[in-house]
Amino acid sequence: MAAILAVVIVLLIHGSLYPWKFVARDLPASPLYILFHSWDADLRQPRVLADIAINLVIYMPLGWTAYLFLRRLPSNVLRVLLPVLLGASLSATLEMLQLFEPSRNCSSVDWLNNTLGTALGVAAGAAFRRILPGPQTQDRGAMALLVCGIAYLIFPLFPILHGDQLAARALAYLQPSLITPVAVLTPFAAWFAAGQLLLFAGVRRPLVWLSILLCLQPLQVAIMGRTPTVAGLAGGILALLLFAFGGRMPQAARVSAILVLLAITVEGLSPFSFAAPHPFVWIPFSGLLNTPQQTAFILFLRKLFLYGTAVWMLHACGLGRGLSFVPAGAAVTILLASIELLQTRIPPHVAEITDPLLAVLCALAFSTLARHRAKPACLAR
User: Fold this and answer.
1) pLDDT given for residue 263 in this prediction
2) Would you say 151 and 226 are in contact if contact means Cβ atoms under 8 Å apart?
3) Coil, helix or strand for 175?
4) Does the pLDDT at position 204 exceed 70?
5) What is the C-alpha to C-alpha distance for residues 94 and 244, in angstroms, rounded to an integer?
6) Where are the domains of the chain?
7) Pick from 244, 233, 254: which is nearest to 195 by CA?
8) pLDDT digits (tens, 9 = 90+) for 298-314
9) Strand partners, 352
């Protein structure tokens, strides 16, 4: 857990200070004074509400992992207080450093939201410890992926209240011309994998829950910033049918792994139109950081679910022994790296190091969760 906490902190620092082009500035007051007097939020603006939601969610992993890292402290107060203080201190430091990065803004609103996000992460970590050790939960990695997938479906959960806009989005959603085999493949693989994850997590009536989760896909037309497609729903319905008739078969996990890997490959190489090579980007997460925050976080959740599911499914199929996710993580990392190298010749794509790095982080997280779950059993012996 210490390694995951360190990775979370590094990623927060990297994302907050990117592109790392600092300039000297003559400030009118101390950085701390400016931080505490930089309230610039108009809560009537939907974009501001979306930014608040993003800042809350971004710092939740810090509170979550810090709480689990400090879970052995004898004092309940310290287990809660120290992670929140860590989040508040880290966020304040980064906000003040952003005064010297021209493309960034120092904001007390962001600092408060980041601190609150850390506190919410602590609450999530406490709930994680209480819920998952139960006898019905068989695999924490599967449950973590399901949480990630649900977050992807509902984020940012800001409804569209204008009837005309909602009607226009519903009509655009129902365009049959958008249904193509490539567009159906990824949701088909993802939804069938979600059924497998429900099984391995020990969820009762997985077919019912998969049907309920699938209903969230068309409801995205009423969520700001989401663009669901009929192809996505069609893939989900096909996956639901396959899961209903063959989801519990012995080879279902292997079929799911093949589908997810195939979907990642086809999506990564589509439209299969090769041209002159363009540069490979070695700066992690640069593409996401150069994308509007809300869109970037939706893409991040999607990638995290797909690549994490690929790693988890390969391990479930026997690629790796015991609690080690290294072989499965290495296989997905090599696949993603190969796709990224080929993307240097596919113009619509930006070839970068982010996707292979995500596979490595997923393998690290699953190994930590597996060891954390296995330790009480070892101690009991």
Assistant:
1) 96
2) no
3) coil
4) yes
5) 49
6) 1-131, 139-381
7) 244
8) 899 999 999 999 999 99
9) 281
Q: Which residue has the higher pLDDT, 129 or 365?
A: 365
Closest among 22, 309, 267, 1 to 152, alpha carbons compared? 309
| Ordered DSSP codes for 355-372 | HHHHHHHHHHHHHHHHHH
- What's the predicted TM-score (pTM) here? 0.76
Q: Residue 292, preceding bond cis, omega within 30 degrees?
A: no
pLDDT digits (tens, 9 = 90+) for 230-248: 889 999 999 999 999 999 9
Angle between helices 181-200 and 293-316 (to 10 degrees): 60
Residue in this structure with the two tokens 């860590």, named with its chain if needed: 86
What's the token pair of residue 2? 């210490």
3-state secondary structure 204-271: CCHHHHHHHHHHCCHHHHHECCCCCCHHHHHHHHHHHHHHHHHCCCCCHHHHHHHHHHHHHHHHHHCC
* Nearest-angstrom CA–CA distance, 286 and 92: 23
Q: Of 197, 243, 198, 190, which Cα lies nearest the Cα of 217? A: 190
In b/e form, how buried is each residue of 204-218, taking b as 16+ CB within 10 angstroms?
eebeebbbebbebbb
Residue 133's pLDDT is what? 43
